[in-house]
Amino acid sequence: xxxxxxxxxxxxxxxxxxxxxAASGSISSFKDMDWYRQAPGKQREFVxxxxxxxxxxxxADSVKxxxxxxxxxxxxxxxxxxxxxxxxxxxxxxxxxxLAGSRAVWGRGxxxxxxx
Length: 116
Known about the structure:
With 116 residues, the chain is an all-beta fold. It has strands at residues 3-6, 9-12, 17-23, 32-38, 45-51, 57-59, 67-72, 77-82, 91-98, 104-106, 110-115. The strands form two sheets. Strands 2, 4, 5, 6, 9, 10 and 11 form a seven-stranded mixed β-sheet that branches. Strands 1-3-8-7 form a four-stranded antiparallel β-sheet, with no helix packed on it. The protein is globular and about 40 Å long.
């Protein structure tokens, strides 16, 4: 199963964007689905995710109450609704599908730029 992220763009601080991750197959084939981001000059970091077998969503402290991850099983998509964006949210956003062990599938990223 392959993953492809989309929906990035340029937005002013305080604005919103909705990212989508399209899977070529069922997202239930993954153990977990996550969004990561990588800011210029920084390491890739976890943003939000969930285990496909459960109902809880998990968020990095920096995005709690501003971002919401959701799943669309019918469309095999995972979305990331990002509200009240800040310049520090700028980066390339990647979706990741976790597999057994430490294996994972990563999609190509989508660039989010938040201007102040």
